[in-house]
Structure formats: C-alpha cells, structure tokens
Amino acid sequence: MTKGEIVAGCLAPHPPHIVYAENPPQNEPVAEGGWEQLRWGYERLRESLADVDYDAIVLLSPHWQTYVGTHFLGLPHFKNLSVDPVFPNLFRYHYEIDIDVELSQQIHDRAAEAGLATKMMNNPDFRIDYGTITTGHMFNPEWDKPFVVISSNRSRDYYSVEVMQEMMVELGRVTREAIIASGKKVVVLASNSLSHRHFTTESAIPEDMSKEHITSHAMHLWDMRMIEYFRTGQAQRIIDEMPEFTEQAIAESDGGGLTWLLSTLDLPTYPGILHGYGTIIGTGNAIVEWPARNHKEA
Amino acid sequence: MGDGELIGSYIVPVHPHTILAPEQNEGWGRLREAYDTAAQRIKDSGADLLIIYSTTWPSIIGHQIIADPNPEWVMVDHDFHDLGSIPYSFNIDEKFAHSWNEANEKRGLKSRTVAYHGFPIDVGSVVALKLLNPDNSIPAVIVSSNVYANRSETTVLAKACMDVVKATGRKAVAVTAMSLSNRMFTTPIEPQDDRIHSLKDDEWNRKILEFLGEGRLEDVGQLSRTIHQQIRVNKVVAFKPMWWLSGMNQNRNNLTGEVLAYEAIHGAGGAVVHLDPTPSGTGDKEYDEDDVEYFAGERNVLDAEHTEAAEEEFITESNVETTEANGPALWEPTESEDSVNSNAAPKPVGAYPHARRVGDLLYLSGVGPRQPGTNAIPGGPIHDENGEALDYDIKAQTHAVVKNITRILEEAGGTLDDVLDVTSFLVDMDRDFQGYNEVWAETLGQVGPTRTTLAIRALPTPIAVEMKVIAKAPATE
Ligand SMILES: [Fe+2]
C-alpha cells in the first residue's frame, strides 16, 4: 500500500459570524455581509488547495468539549440542525456530514495504544458542535469530503497548559502515524481563534463592521507575535510560549487544537502561509496554511 | 397581583446518569430517588413556576433566557453519549421570560431572550426539568450562566427575577443545576467504581452541605470564590450558582435546609438539596459583601473609552477601584485621633474623614449614594460625562445614602438608630422631594431625627441627594 500523507495543515477558526455573513442556504439567519477579510482569507485557502488531491479532512474542534478522554465521531453520516447556544441569532445551520469512520477508528486505536483515554461516539442523535460545522463549511462549502472529527479534551482546565500540550503532542504524533499508515491523503484542521477575549455586548446589527476591532492592544500584540512565528516556521517557539499565550491572551488554543496541529506536521520549520487575519466580536482569528505537500522529507 | 414569592429552592446535579443509568450505581440511584422526592415536594407545594439557573449553559452576551414556549429536541451529552439520548419537550413560560428580560435591563444588566426552533437546551437544564417536572404541569424558565459575570451581576440577575415573581404574584421555585466539586475522572470508569474524585473534594462538599443543611445559604455564597479555588476545575471564572440562589432568597442565612442526597457522578460531587424559606433560627448573617441593587459594572467594551476598565475587571476578578470619568478624583479619608473611616463607605472627594467623634456626638461628612469599591450610583447618575442629563431613580439614590450612613455608624460601633439630626441636600426639589420623602419615611423617619431639606444647584459628583448627619456616639470603655 502507498504511504499516506498530510497534504496541508491549517489553522481554520470557527466563529459562526463568518458563516452567517456568507448567507449559505443551510443557515437560517440572513446577513448583510461582514468580516470580509476573514471570508476572503478562507477563499484564498480554498484556492490554494483547489488543485490538491486529498481523501479526507481531520479536524479538532474546541467546542466538542470532553472531560473524559478524547472522543471521535464514529458513524458514517450525521444530519441535524446546529444552533449555536451563544449566538443563536446568527447560526442555525442544517448540516449533513460524512465521516471517514475507518480513518477515525485508526487514529482512535493508535491513540488508545499510546495510553490516551479515548472513546468512539456512536450515538446517532448526537448534535455536532457549531465549531466543527463552521470550519467545515468555510473550508469545504460543498461538503464533498469525509471528515474525522476529534473532540477537545479539556486537560488544560483539569491540569495545566503543559499537561494539555504533552497530551496534544502525543495525539498529533499518533494522528500523523495513523494517516501515513492509512495510505490516504489528508488535510488536518485546527479549529480555533487566537486571542479570545470577547466583547460582552453585541451591536444592533451584528455585522456592523464599524464596531469590530480587537479588544485590547495586548491581545493584538500576542496575535501578531504568534502570526510572526507561523510565517517564519518557528513551531517550537509557539509550543514553548503556549503557556504564556494561553494565559495572557485567554487564547482558544487552550482547547489543544493548535498544539495538536503543529504536532501532526512534526513541528514545521518551513513558513506557514497567512491567508487572512481579522477580529470577530473582539477575538483574534488567523487563517494559516502549512503546505506540507511541498515540504516532504527526502 | 403583587405578592408573589419564592416558596422553595433546590440544588440538583447536572449529569445525565440520574435519568439514563440510575440502576447502574447505587449512588446514582439514590440521587434519582432524591430527585423524585424533590419533584413530589414541588408538586405538593402548589408551585406555579420553576426557575432554572444552569451552570452548563454558558453565555457571553449578558444572560440569555429561554422564551420558546415549547422547546423540543433530543439531547445527547458531549461526554456520556454512550449512556443514550434524552428526548425533551418542555413547557416554558414565555411571558415570564420576556418580563425577566426587561427587568434585567431595568437593573442595568445585558440580557436577551432566546426562542429558536432547535435551540440546544443544555444538559443540566434538561436533566433538572425532566426529573423535577416530569409531566410538564409547572411552567418553567431557564437562564444561562454568563462566563464573565461576577458576584454583583449574578446577584442583580436574581433580584430582577424576584421583581417579576413579586409583581406577577407567582409561587416560584428556584433551581440551580450544578455540581459541587466538579472534577471528574478523566478516564472511563466502571459504574461500581464511582466515588468523589479526591478526599479533599469530598471534605469540601460535606462542609458546603453542612452549611446548606443548616440553611446557611448566604454563607455558602460568601465562600463562593474560596470554594471555586479549592474544588472547582476552572471551566468558568467563578462558582456562581450560590450567588444567584442566595440572591433569590434575599441573601438569607436562616433558611430551613435539608440535604436529600449526596453522591459521586463520575468523580464530581452531585447533591440534591432542598432549601425552604421558613426561618430556622440558626445561622447569623455575617454580611461582608456589598448588597448590590443595580449593575453598573462597565462591560460595554464596544465603546473604546471603556475598554481598559472592562479588561482590568475581567483579568483581576476583584473589586478594582475605578475612578470614573464622570466626577472628581477620589481621596483616601483623612486620619486623625477622633476620625471614623470605613472601607464600606464610598471614598471622599476631598481631604476629610467619613466622620469625627467629639465627646458624645458623631459628626458625619456629607454622605451621598455612591457605592464603595465600584463608585457606582444606584439609580444611575444624574448626567453623563458630557453633562447630558440622564434619567435617574431618586428612591434608589436615597436608599443608598441611608445605607452608606448605616455603614459609617456601624464602623463607629453604632447603628442607624443613633441619628439625631439630618440636613438633606436635593439638586432638584420639584422632581425629587416626594420620592426622597417616601424613602425617608421608611428608613430614617422610623428613627425620628430632626430634619432640614435644602435645594442646591449641584453636588460634586453626579448625584441628586446628599445628607449631613449628627449622631449619638456609642459609649466607649
Ligand atoms: Fe470558539
């Protein structure tokens, strides 16, 4: 069998506002646009991968929060309505999603072998979190590729950023090994924002861009620092500074997605491509692609 | 209408085991039995409204209140999906939800109602409502837990809710869906191996339940931050449900409490507790936090000029002294041999003490309604930082003045009953005299000091009323 491969790894954030602003037929609310910088960023990401052949998308979402280990969606198809419990005014999305159960099980099994607590999610009534659906839609609006969806183990809440990183580096390693063993070509997505301090009020027109900005200068500085590391291939520094970043920027990387992503890519030393940056209700969001297909080991 | 009341309160656990697997573990079964007992008591009490504060529904834009009259869906837990699905169909009091939302806004809170088909009701609310109200005979409301809210916001949320309960003549039951210690085992366990995650968590849980069993709800509220540090995984920024429930119960410490069950659910502390408003006679109230009526904490970070204050409030989670742009700078009260100064009273706007003792008398500096710590003005300021007039509530301001006077007198070892003579200053006699006079009659009027009321052009801060007080000094050894 041919060796599997990660063709790209992406930071692909999920505030529901960007799906709302796109007005896809699956989403009930209607918007007058908004957050264009980020939506154009997603467009550039999609274009970048338009001619790249791949079989599946592996995604980790911080809004499927599990406290008892790491979970994997385990049924071939899910169909339901996803309503964001925080922004129900913006996101009520009728989704249908295919799961690559085989690959899901393979990553699950390797994670279990490595000593991580794991569980397959086989309940057909389960409602997939809005983070997964938002990133899934923005990355692939046609929904024509199967997914592996991995939950966010809240080990940071239970222990510390350091313990979270140990577990996510391990999960990233076994994810990569399972993908290589599967013979499949895969894109991996970490669905999270950077700085994550929200405004606690919403303007009358949520998409009023005159109200949109980062919540503070400190948050901006942290976001730019991280983006600089992304663009200059300094994954190890991101891992090293993750505790400070997570504490001080209240970063959504606390869910483990970014650490896991960098680990699946074996801590890339080549530059990531910044496709877009923008704030959403004050939080910082970057769309970044690491084109692993162009940096294969000799 | 108008004499509604809270006729009972319950604390209940959130995880789905009590519905989906009570037979798999004796402890889960006992929690289920306690849930059933609570349901029967609620039914027998003649309650006509169930109010759920759920810790498993976080919100960001203020608080959210379910206002869909009949939310229906199938709930599956994010962690315990293998236990099964819980279909639900609830009877929500849409009208109460809207009134509560309005009451929140009147008290300065950000708030909104939610009525969307398919909205995912959280696991804690689903479990609580399914088990406490199995036939849906009692209409319910559900409110979220704001991730950024601190004590003042959570307390005011309860007071706004009680405004509506009272005004609409309801017999309400308040429910907090919550864990005590919330640390679960991070690996799957066999049901028979369930126990509280650690001895320390168990000891804290038992201490909390000892207080609650004695009806000392406000004591648990006052310990919220400590409890959060000791036995709570930091999923949220504070242990808030006890603030809300205590606020619903007028911050009382002499309720009649009964612990119906206490057991582990996958390591977390689950308890069913009934708090009856009948005074138990136990539990002196040791009130050391502000009794806040209106929420004035500035969270409107959309306005750039407020960004820093809001940021600071979030990061430190403490009562940061905020010097408002709307008024003069604040001073530390001056100290001298005879001065009486209180941390519980608002900071002076110049170099003077809160009060001074001379022989048998206490002379107080002019006292306004500003709140100690936050410097907020109950009832709102009379104008904004640009001098634009604002609508304000003279009664709330007058109440706050009397409260501040009480604090200063208590610092000196006395009480409000010691007041002998008052000079009151109103900036708008025509508008405010009547409201001021009503509050006077309820408070200082009962004490009986002499009084002079003057109209003046302005006060140094944007307030409408200030009082100058002379009181008897308490006897010294
Ligand atoms: Fe998020």
Structural notes for this entry:
The complex is a heterodimer of chains A (about 300) and B (about 475). Chain A has about 300 residues and is of the alpha/beta class. Chain A has one domain: 3-Layer(aba) Sandwich (Protocatechuate 4,5-dioxygenase, Chain B). Chain A contains nine helices and ten strands. Chain A has helices spanning about 15-20, 35-50, 100-115, 130-140, 155-160, 160-180, 215-230, 235-250, 255-265, and strands at about 5-10, 55-65, 70-75, 75-85, 90-100, 120, 145-155, 185-190, 275-280, 285-290. A six-stranded mixed sheet of chain A has the order 7-2-8-1-10-9, sandwiched between helices. Chain A has a two-stranded parallel ribbon with strand order 3-6. Chain A has a two-stranded antiparallel sheet with strand order 4-5. The longest helix of chain A is centred in the middle third of the chain and has 22 residues, at about 160-180. Chain A is globular. The mean pLDDT of chain A is about 95. With about 475 residues, chain B is α/β, with parallel strands linked by helices. Chain B folds into two domains: about 5-275, Protocatechuate 4,5-dioxygenase, Chain B (3-Layer(aba) Sandwich); about 305-470, 60s Ribosomal Protein L30, Chain: A (2-Layer Sandwich), CATH 3.30.1330.40. Chain B contains 13 helices and 16 strands. Chain B has helices spanning about 15-20, 25-45, 95-105, 125-130, 150-165, 200-215, 215-220, 225-230, 240-250, 305-315, 395-410, 430-440, 445, and strands at about 5-10, 50-60, 65, 70-75, 85-90, 110-115, 140-145, 170-175, 255-265, 270-275, 340, 355-360, 360-365, 420-425, 450-455, 465-470. A six-stranded mixed sheet of chain B has the order 7-2-8-1-10-9, sandwiched between helices. A six-stranded mixed sheet of chain B has the order 11-12-13-16-14-15, covered by helices on one side. Chain B is elongated and about 70 Å long. The interface of A and B includes residues 71, 87, 92, 121 and 151 of A. The complex binds fe (ii) ion.
